[in-house]
Write a structure and sequence with these properties.
198 residues; disordered N terminus; alpha+beta
Length: 198
């Protein structure tokens, strides 16, 4: 993987009340070409500790939040749809071993106008109302730019449900990189909050 970088895991949490997301410190970035690691953490929002802050979806039980991941129509709305692209394909087989595929094309006025982005993945583990684990790759045009392992945990609270998103990614040469992916997750989880208010 010459020229690639591998980033340790970070956590995203979305408090419904504020729309803010907290990201825990990463374990570091190791370059496959240099073999050296950087311990510079990424932090957004307020941290309670290095494990990340927990946000709550008020008045949403685990089943309600989990349904936004398991129901294809709901997931399409928050995960696939967007103002800057047109969806060409969205398929979702929500079961262990099932696949998820999203292909969209960027609209005019975007940095990648006319270029297709494809996410292909599979469900590695599903525990109803408790967790979902996926593995996926992302391509821009015909070039694969990253591979990811993402875990979503749904934790009950007195007020509702905490959602913890842990993303572990390998970013290949010419990819968007961790900072852009981080921004992408922030936007997606904002959209999830909107979906849960429907």
């Amino acid at each position: 993987m010459r020229g690639s970088s591998v980033r340790g895991k970070w956590k995203l949490v979305l408090p419904l009340a504020t729309g803010a997301i907290a990201i825990a410190a990463v374990t570091g970035v190791a370059s496959a070409s240099s073999g050296k690691a950087s311990a510079t953490p990424i932090r957004i929002g307020v941290m309670s500790d290095c494990k990340g802050a927990f946000g709550t979806f008020d008045a949403q039980d685990q089943a309600g939040v989990f349904a936004a991941f398991s129901d294809p129509a709901k997931k399409r709305r928050w995960f696939a749809e967007g103002e800057r692209h047109d969806i060409e394909e969205f398929e979702m087989d929500f079961r262990v071993g099932g696949v998820e595929r999203l292909r969209y094309r960027f609209k005019e006025g975007t940095p990648f106008q006319g270029v297709a982005s494809t996410n292909e993945g599979s469900y590695l583990d599903i525990v109803p109302n408790r967790c979902v684990v996926t593995a996926s790759t992302m391509a821009l045009g015909s070039k694969r730019i990253s591979a990811s392992l993402v875990t979503f945990e749904f934790l009950p609270t007195e007020k509702g449900t905490d959602l913890i998103c842990t993303h572990q990614g390998a970013f290949f040469e010419g990819s968007d990189g961790p900072q852009m992916r981080e921004a992408g997750w922030r936007k997606l989880l904002d959209q999830l909050a909107t979906e849960l208010k429907r």
